[in-house]
Structures are given as C-alpha cells and as structure tokens.
Amino acid sequence: METPENKPGFFQSNTARMIMVGLLTLVLMLPLVLVDGLIQERAGRQLEVVSEINDKWGESVYCYGPILQVPYTRYQETVTVDEKTKVQTTERTAITDYAYFFPNTLNNNSSVQTKLLKRNNYESVVYSTKMAFTGDFTAPDFTPEDIAEENIHWEKASILIKTTNLKSIKEAVKITIGDKEFSFRPVYNEANDAVQELNTGYFDARFLKEGTAKFAFNMTYNGSQSISMVPVGKTSTAQMTSDWASPSFAGNYLPADDKTINESGFSAHWKILDINRPFQQQSFGKLPDLGAFAFTVNFVVPVDQYQQNERAVKYGFLMIGLTFLIFFLIQTISKIKIHIFQYSMIGLALIMFYTLLISITEHSSFLTAYLIAGGAVVAMITLYSISILKGRKFPLFIGGALTVLYSFIYVIIQLENYALLFGSIGLFAILGAVMYFSRKIDWN
C-alpha cells in the first residue's frame, strides 16, 4: 500500500514565503523614510547657508526706472451747513500730489559675471553685473488730469528709481539728462522694506517742457539668484549677456527667440512696447506697484544634489521590491532556502546605498557618488549571495540584474520630460521578464 506523500506545512509554502518577504519590504520602508528625513534636513541646512552667503554678498536685484516725479497742487472743496442758519460754507483745501512720468524709450545693456561661493559642503551662485541705461523723456503732459500750469511745481521735480539690494550697489549712481547731471540718494520706505527708492532730490524740470530730453546712467551690483526689471519705457529694450550656462527665464515677458545659450554663457534680448503692458506712461496721485510686470533671469544651480537624492529615495520601494523578487524567484527555481534574516541583510544593504549616496554627494558630484555607492552595494550583495546560493551562477546573475536596475533608476532620475515614459516602458519590460522566468514554476 502506497504511503501518502508528506506535503509541506503552510509556513514552508511559497505563499508563506511571499507574505514574509512582502512584510519585510514594508518594514524596510521605515528606514527609507528616515533617510528621506535626513535629506530634507541637509537640504534645509543648505538653504540656510546659501541665504547667509547671499545676504553677505548681495541678494536678488529688482529695479525699474528712471521715473520723473513732479509735484502739483489740487484743491479739495468741503461743504458744511450750519444747522441753525442753514447757511452753506465752502472750504477749499490745497493738497500736494505727485505726477509720475515714465520714459519714452528705455534701453538697458547688462553684463553679468557669475561665480560659485562655497561654505563647507554648500555652494551658491552669485554675480556682479554692470547695467547701463539710456533713453529719453518727452514733455510731461498734465492734460489728462486737467491740472493748470500755475499749479505745477516744476522747481521741485525729481528723478527716482525703485530697486532692491541697496547695500550691494558698488558705485555711485548718477544720471545725466540733457546737459545736466544729478546724483541719486536713498530714500527709506517704511511701507516696503524690500523695494526702496533712489531719488535725485529737487531740481527745476522746466527744460523738459521744451521737448525730448535724453538720459543715461549706470548701476553696478553684487547680487545672487536673479535679476528682474520692469519695462517702464513706452518702448523698452534690454540686452543681457553672461557667462552663466544655465539661465532660467521667468516673469511676465520672455526674451526673443534668437537668444543663445551654450557652455560659455548666454545672450538674450527683450523688446516690450507700452501696448504689451496694462499700465500707462503716466500716473497721478500714487505710483502703482509694478512688480507683477517684470521680466526675470534666474541664476540657479541646474540640478540640486539634494533634489536628486530625494528622487532616488522615492524609487527605494521599487529597488527593494525588485531585488527581493529576484531572490525569491531564484530561491523557488533552485530549491535553495533563503532565510528571512538573509533577506533582511540584503534589504539593509540596499538601504545603505542611500546613506552612502547622500554622504558622498556632499563631497563630489552626484554621478560619482552614485557610481561609488551603487558599485559598493552591488559588490556586497553579490559576494553575500555566493555564500547563500552555494555557487557563482546565480550570484553573477544577481550582480548583473542589480547593475541594470541601478542604471535604470539613474536614467529616470536624470530625465525630466521623459521620466514617466521611460519608467513605464522599463517596468513593463521587467514585468515581462518576471512572467517569462516564472512561467514554469509550480506554485502549488
């Protein structure tokens, strides 16, 4: 009589092994979360250091002008009625207001030289820029507000420039209008500490009534991160050249299509007409906030190392899961038992990849750190697999598979527009390979 074949218990079945490996994968997400927290902490520290560097060297530059400011007197009438006599009394109060006139043409030519400043393991992009402004004013027109000539105080006119980063202006700022030269001085604005004013002080602007008056002035800044300007001219043009090879153009207006960007730097120009903006060439009573109509050039490090590390950690679950899947399939095909402790050691080795990556990246490039960390982990797991799997055939396959996986993850990290497409195709190919190698396994 045949004896029935002893069937393995549930805890020795493939199903139980799959459950344990899956639970271990979920448990290993906790150290991944801790690693991600470490990256966030280091990235926060980098922002603090960069802010300190920029504060000492010079912060972002934002400016617009020159703007002609002319005071005028308007009268406000107040009518009061005596309750007893019903007699009306009209009181006329004189109020001083200001009219602001923008240039007819405004041309800017800026040259920007950049460099990297480092402190410990962190670096920030800073620059020195020389900005040359030219253009002309036409005769100020007060007719839109019906202001009488005798109420205009031409002798108290002034020229003003709105700007930030006053402490990093490196040379005196003087403007030449016609054959007259005026020096700018700072005027503190309590309402807005960020945007301050440079003002020439009073001068007699009657000569501007005669027609067009040309102007020219220069500004030299130390700055960081970005340069922003508002096109206040009826016709505004700007030309900017720099040795920075990775500019980012932002703001309300983009440069013309013929801009050039290469390894030696960039060159770009803008041409903006008054019809392209929602504000007029003059303003009465109050100068509006024009920050929303600026065009901007950002000087930033193209790919932040902590951002790349964070993206790598996001693929940690995929890396651990696929590695465990490879070992599980080998275990099932070869009938070699792999203990859950050995799975744990392999998982911890995969976690160590991310701590090595972030620590080495702070002292070298991301690519160098990725090669060193990835090579070390692949070598460790491959050598460990030799003792587990009692041979070289499967360990060599595991080493090759891990190399392909790490290469696949690196390519996805570097891609931006095609990351989803490449990742989807890669995962589809991996799924197909798993289905192929597991097709003959008897899961019962």
Task: Please describe what this structure looks like.
This protein has 444 residues and is α+β, with helices and mostly antiparallel strands. The protein has 2 domains: 10-47 and 305-437, no CATH class; 61-299, Immunoglobulin-like. The protein is 36% helix and 31% strand. It contains 8 helices and 17 strands. The strands form 2 sheets. Strands 1, 2, 5, 8, 9, 11, 13, 16 and 17 form a 9-stranded mixed beta sheet that branches. An 8-stranded mixed beta sheet has the order 7-6-10-4-3-12-15-14. Helix 1 (14-27) runs parallel beside helix 5, helix 2 runs antiparallel to helix 3 (305-314) and helix 4 (316-334) runs antiparallel to helix 7. It starts with 13 loop residues before the first helix and ends in a 7-residue tail after the last helix. The mean pLDDT is 84.
What are the salient characteristics of this protein?
36% helix, 9-stranded mixed beta sheet, 8 helices, 8-stranded mixed beta sheet, 444 residues, 17 strands, alpha+beta
Break the fold down into its secondary structure elements and pairings.
Blueprint: H1 14-27, H2 29-57, E1 61-81, E2 88-101, E3 105-119, E4 122-137, E5 158-163, E6 174-177, E7 180-183, E8 185-187, E9 196-199, E10 213-224, E11 226-229, E12 235-242, E13 247-251, E14 260-262, E15 265-273, E16 282-284, E17 295-299, H3 305-314, H4 316-334, H5 340-361, H6 366-389, H7 393-414, H8 419-437
Parallel strand pairs: 1-11, 3-12
Antiparallel strand pairs: 1-2, 1-5, 2-16, 3-4, 4-10, 5-9, 6-7, 6-10, 8-9, 11-17, 12-15, 13-17, 14-15
